[in-house]
Amino acid sequence: MDIKKAKIDEPTLMKYVSRSVGSSPKRIHSQFGLLGSNRMDSLDKKLYCRADTIDLKNWGLQLEKHLAKALSNERKGGSKMEEWEIDLGRLDIKNVIAHGTYGSVYKGIYDDQDVAVKVLDWGEDDHATTAKTSTLRASFQQEISVWHKLDHPNVTKFIGASMGTTDLKIPSKNDPNLHQNPVPSRACCVVVEYLPGGTLKKFLIKNSRKKLPFKTVVQLALDLSRGLSYLHSKKIVHRDLKTENMMLDANKTLKIVDFGVARVEAQNPRDMTGVTGTLGYMAPEVLEGKPYNRKCDVYSFGICLWEIYCCDMPYADLSFAEASSAVVHQFTSSIPKCCPSSFASILKKCWDMNPEKRPEMEEVVKLLEAIDTGKGGGMIPEDQAVGCFCFYGGRHGT
User: Fold this and answer.
1) What is the tens place of the pLDDT at every residue in 62-100?
2) DSSP assignment of 245-291, as one string?
3) DSSP code of 16?
4) CB atoms within 10 A of CB 348
5) pLDDT tens digits, residue range 131-181?
6) Pick the catalytic residue: 87, 112, 121, 240?
7) Are 162 and 148 in contact (CB under 8 A)?
8) Per the database record, which ranges form the Protein kinase domain (predicted)?
C-alpha cells in the first residue's frame, strides 16, 4: 500500500502543534516522523510528514482543548478562572428534565459522571431589563458562593459552574418542550451531581395513599435534619426549605438542593429581613417581614416533617390569604392521632411561634436518633391495606 504524504505549512504546524502539545521543534520532529535532515533550519519552507505516523485523534483533542482555553481566557479578558468555574469542553448535555421560570434543568455527563445542569437565562443584554439581569446574576453568584464550599452526604454535591457563557451546547432535537424555553444565547449554568430519585415532593405524592413506613419517615427526617444542621454549623440559612428543594439518590438518601436564596447568617438579626421562601413553609416572622435568623429554617423543617409523615401537602385546602393568616395565627397543620408522641413532640417544638423557643437543628438530630422505630407508629396499621384512618371523616386529625 502506497503511503501518501501530507503537505503541512510550517508556520501553521509550529504555531498550533508546538503550543497545544507543548513540544519543542526537536520533539516535534521525533513525534511526527519528519523526513530529511535532523536539523529544522535545513528544511525547506514546506515540511513533510508521514500521515500514517500522526495520532490525529490525540492531536485534535489537544488542539481543541488548547483553543477552547484560549477563547475562554480571551472572553474573560485574560482573567484567572474562579476555583468553581467548569470546563465546558468536558460537559456533555443530554436532555431536558425540568423547566422553570428563568431556565431549565438538563441531564448531562461531566468527566464520566452523571450530572444535573441548571441553565439560567438572564436575557439578551439589549432586550432584558436591567432589574431582571441584575437579579438573576445576583441569585447565581449567591448560589455559587454558598454551594461550592459545602461537603456533606445530605447536601447535593456541587460540581462547578459557568457564568455568562455563549459556549453551552444544548441539543434541541427530540425535545418537545424546547420551544417554550428557547436556548439562551448567553446563559449561566450550575452543574451538580445527578440524583435519579427525583424530588422528595414527587416521592411523597406517589405515596399519598399508602403512606410511608415509620422507619422510612424517620430516616428521611434524619437525612434532612443532618443536612440542615450542617448548613447551620456553616452559618448558612437556607430560607426556602421545602420538599420541592430536596432530592433523593438511588438509595433514597435525601439531599438538600437549591441555594438560590440562601444567605450567610448575619450577626445582626435586623440585617436579615423581608419575605423570602414559599408560603406554607415560611415562618411567621418571615411572613410578617420581621428580622429572622436560622430558626426560620427550623419552622420550615417542622412543616416538611409533617409532610413526610402524612404524605400530604400543608394548607392544601386553603387559599393564599387563608394560608397566610393560618401561619401568622398559629393554625399549623394538625398532627394525626396515630403519630407517636416522640415524633409529635418534635413537630410542636419546631412549630413554636417564638423563634427563640424552637430547638437548634443539632438538638433535633439527637431527638430523631432517639426514636424507636421498631414499635411501629406509622400512618398505616399492620392490618390496613391502604389509606390512613386519621384522615377519614375529615382531612386532618385533631
Assistant:
1) 554 554 454 455 444 555 667 788 888 888 888 888 876
2) GEEE-TT--EEE---TT-EEPPSSGGGS-S--S-TTTS-HHHHTT--
3) I
4) 11
5) 666 666 777 777 788 888 899 999 999 999 887 666 667 766 555 554 444
6) 240
7) no
8) 91-371
